[in-house]
Structure formats: structure tokens, C-alpha cells
Design a protein that fits this description.
There is one protein chain. The protein is of the alpha+beta class. It folds into 3 domains: about 45 residues; about 150 residues, Alpha-Beta Plaits (2-Layer Sandwich), CATH 3.30.70.1660; about 80 residues, Double Stranded RNA Binding Domain. Helices cover about 40% and strands about 25% of the residues. The strands form 2 sheets. Strands 2-3-1-5-4-9-10-11 form an 8-stranded mixed β-sheet, with helices on both faces. Strands 6-7-8 form a 3-stranded antiparallel β-sheet, covered by helices on one side. Helix 1 packs antiparallel against helix 2. The protein is globular and about 75 Å long.
Length: about 300
């Protein structure tokens, strides 16, 4: 890949030299050729930004509001919509696993989890993992005061049967109940929703719920897939923490250490990792985050190179 990249860079340099002394007719042809090569060069450069062994997998995206009640729940709902719109723009599909609407905020959520499927879904979406901060004049405040809200986004790869994650059936409790999510009245007529509890009552307990459709069997399968992914991610995080401790680094994301701020009353969005700025928050919140995602991937690549 490096040889191909260097060759294309050499072609660009050669064309730039030819353009300096080219006639108008030659210039049009050379500029068209340069544009084609630059497109190939950009595509090859982007290939270098992917390095994870799970980049090609689907992404399980979980969104949770921080403290702040209605305002934070509304913010979580805005992020949920933003990622759904981004996935649509990228030609990806979104499968809702679970969602808990907030009664006080018409479009707000207290929790949402979905699977995004498509080309390099996890490779792209992983840079969104972290704390997102919203600053705005709250529509829920009668005095029109400025509020700051937080929401946490967790992104992990969907782990299939080709990855060996052993789950002892004795460690799992499965509960079934009537769905109360956004699936509609037809979903609510049977006990189709599933709650899987891994090691109930233990300090390392994990709870996964799924109420996506009418089939209890399918909901259980989806919940077990998420549990498997969570256990895999937990083990990966443990290994990373050990490596971090060995290096003496402090890289963990803490609540409040936001990766991106959305300051709506001042019309800007800033990614605190890459430094990338946007001044069109409406477009960003409508899913136009491709540039932010790629700048995040560049930042991650720079961090890897610095180690």
C-alpha cells in the first residue's frame, strides 16, 4: 500500500511540474488527470487510517443521557437521530435493539441501543465513542437560560460465532416481559421482550435488553449477541488498561471529559481530539458528520504513530 501511495504522490508532483508550462488545452487535460489521481490518492490514504481487526464488523451503538433530566434526555435523542441519519447517508442499515423514550421530552430518550451494519461500520463509528457535550438555550426552560448537557456514546463491534467468547449458561438469567418500547401496539400484546442478566447480583453483572420485534426467540438471540460483544469488549478493555498502566499513561475517558462540544447558541461544534471545527450545527445534527468521523480517524492514527 505504501508503494502505491508513493507512486501516486510522484504522479501528482510530475503533473504539477507539467502544468507550470502547459498550454490552455493541455492544462484542461492535465488538471482532469490530476483530479483523478488525487481522488485515488485520497482513497488510498483513508485506507491507512483503518488498523483494527474488527473494523469490518457491524457496530453496536449505545446512547445514554447524563445527569440533567429532560434536557439530557433530549440531547441523547438528538444524538440518536444524528447517528441514524449518518448511517442512512453512508448507505448503512440501522437495527433498533432497545429504546426507552423520555415522557418529558417528545424526542428524548433515557436509553437507546442499535446495530449499524454496512461497510466498515465499526471502523467508522468507533471514533464517536465517548462523552458528547451540548450547550444551548434550553427549550424546556421558561426563563430561556443556557444549559449544558452530557450524553455518553458507547460503540463496540458486533461479535459473531467466529470469535470464541465462552458464556456459562449457569451465569445467565433470562427474563421475558411485555414490550414497552417504540415498537407499536402490536409488539405490546405478548411477552416478547427479553432481558438477559449475566451473573445476577455480582459486581461484574451485565444486563442486556431487547424488545425489537414480536419474536421472543429473535429478541433473545439479539440480546445474547450484545452480551457476547460486551464480554468481548470488557476483556479487550482490561488488556488495554493493563498496557496503559504499564506505560504510565492516563487515557481513560472520564465522565465530563467530552470528546466533542456542540455549542448551539454560538453556532459551532468542536472536536476536542482533532481540533476540527464546524459552524453548521443543523447539518451536523442531521447526520452530516462524515468530515468529523474522518478527522477523528486521522487523530487516532496519529496517536498510534506516536506510541
Amino acid at each position: 500500500m505504501l508503494d502505491g501511495y508513493n507512486r501516486l504522490e510522484g504522479d501528482i508532483t510530475g503533473l504539477d511540474e507539467l502544468l507550470e508550462g502547459a498550454s490552455e488545452e493541455e492544462r484542461l487535460e492535465l488538471e482532469g488527470e490530476r483530479e483523478t489521481i488525487q481522488h485515488d490518492l485520497d482513497a488510498l490514504y483513508r485506507e491507512t487510517l483503518f488498523s483494527g481487526r474488527h473494523d469490518e464488523r457491524a457496530a453496536i451503538v449505545t446512547i445514554k443521557p447524563g445527569a440533567g433530566g429532560t434536557e439530557s434526555s433530549d440531547w441523547a435523542g438528538m444524538l440518536w437521530r444524528m447517528y441514524r441519519r449518518y448511517a442512512e447517508r453512508q448507505g448503512m442499515t440501522v437495527e433498533l435493539l432497545d429504546a426507552a423514550p423520555n415522557d418529558s421530552a417528545p424526542n428524548g430518550i433515557d436509553y437507546a441501543q442499535m446495530i449499524v451494519r454496512g461497510e466498515r461500520a465499526f471502523g467508522l463509528m468507533q471514533v464517536e465513542s465517548g462523552v458528547h457535550r451540548l450547550v444551548r438555550v434550553s427549550p424546556f426552560d421558561a426563563q430561556n437560560r443556557r444549559h449544558t448537557s452530557f450524553a455518553a456514546v458507547e460503540v463496540m463491534p458486533e461479535i459473531d460465532d467466529d470469535v470464541n467468547v465462552v458464556i456459562d449458561p449457569k451465569d445467565v438469567r433470562v427474563d421475558v416481559y411485555r414490550s414497552s418500547g417504540p415498537g407499536g401496539q402490536s409488539v405490546n400484546t405478548t411477552d416478547s421482550a427479553v432481558r438477559v442478566v449475566y451473573k445476577p447480583g455480582a459486581p461484574n453483572e451485565i444486563i442486556v435488553t431487547c424488545q425489537d420485534g414480536k419474536s421472543q426467540i429473535k429478541n433473545r438471540e439479539k440480546a445474547m449477541t450484545v452480551l457476547k460483544s460486551r464480554l468481548f469488549e470488557r476483556e479487550e478493555r482490561r488488556r488495554r488498561d493493563e498496557q496503559t498502566a504499564a506505560r504510565g499513561d492516563q487515557k481513560a475517558i472520564e465522565w465530563g471529559s467530552q470528546i466533542r462540544s456542540y455549542v448551539l447558541d454560538k453556532q459551532y461544534i468542536k472536536d476536542h481530539r482533532s481540533g476540527d471545527m464546524r459552524h453548521d450545527p443543523d447539518n451536523v445534527l442531521d447526520g452530516d458528520i462524515e468530515g468529523l468521523v474522518w478527522s477523528g480517524l486521522e487523530w487516532k492514527a496519529q496517536q498510534r504513530a506516536a506510541k
